[in-house]
Amino acid sequence: MANGGIVNSCGAYTIALAAKAYFKPVMVVSGVFKLSPLYSVDFDSCNDLVSPMSIYQPRIGENQNCIEVCVPLHDYVPPELISLHITDLGPQTPDYIYRMLKEMYSAEDYTLGRS
Length: 115
Known about the structure:
By secondary structure, the chain is of the alpha+beta class. It has helices at 12-21, 43-46, 94-104, 107-111, and strands spanning 6-9, 27-29, 74-77, 84-87, 90-92. The chain is elongated and about 60 Å long. The two termini are 22 Å apart.
C-alpha cells in the first residue's frame, strides 16, 4: 500500500504484533511491481471471506445458531509494525514507500479506471 502497510495472508498481522512485543524487526521482501499507489480506506470491505468450515468443524448435535465465525482470507499489516521493505530497488523504510511510488507512477495512474 502507498502508506507502507501490506496486505498478506491471514495471520501476518498476528505475527507482526508478536514481533513487536518481542522487539524483533519485521522485514517485507517484495518486488516493486506488487506495490500499489492507492490507499485502502476500508480494508474489511475489500477483503474476501472463506468458509468457516476450514477451521471449525461443529460436533453432531451442537447448537450452531449462536456461533458466528468470520474467516478473512487476508490481513492488513499497518506500517507501524513493519521495520523495512526489501525491494528490487533496495531496502526502503515504510515512510519512503509513498515517495518511491510517487516517483514510479504519474498522477494519471491514480485515477485510471475510475469513472
